[in-house]
């Protein structure tokens, strides 16, 4: 059962997104969605968002994950997104049903997150300045307050290696859907991404058929 407060929180997050869609906010939102998928389950994430508006999760995939996943910065943030996306790909049945058209695209985006340089571009029309980005006492204080603090990886114990985790999860998904996942990957994933994926399978000592 989805906590009723969760839906209200998500509605507020989407309202904020529609009022000022900044790159910084989108990146934070992707980290939040990904962590939610990992803690509460990818299926619950999909159901919750689709419960706000039918097939809304498709828009989240198309307009947020596929467009901006490559912009995620920070080792911990990238790992959270990688694990969250892996869970969305492999633990949400809707991804092979309602949203199958996005499955390979999302996997491609995930491999790109692992292997390609970060996308640091910002839309030309983005003039909104976040409060914490403005110079002044608050910024200096924040820098001092967090100086020397190590980033906390909430997935350090459960997922030591995100690439290996992806490989193992894909192997599980393939076992649960015989004859479906490997052909999907072969037909929908770019050759370079398939090469990287094979390295992940080798590192995880798994394979899919």
Automatic annotation (TrEMBL):
GO terms for molecular function: nuclear export signal receptor activity; small GTPase binding. GO terms for cellular component: cytosol; nuclear envelope. Residues 1-200 form the Exportin-2 C-terminal domain. InterPro entries: ARM-like (IPR011989), ARM-type_fold (IPR016024), XPO2_C (IPR005043). The chain crosses the membrane at residues 25-46. It comes from the Eukaryota. GO terms for biological process: protein export from nucleus; protein import into nucleus. Keywords: Membrane, Transmembrane, Transmembrane helix. PANTHER family: EXPORTIN-2, IMPORTIN-7, 8, 11. This is Exportin-2.
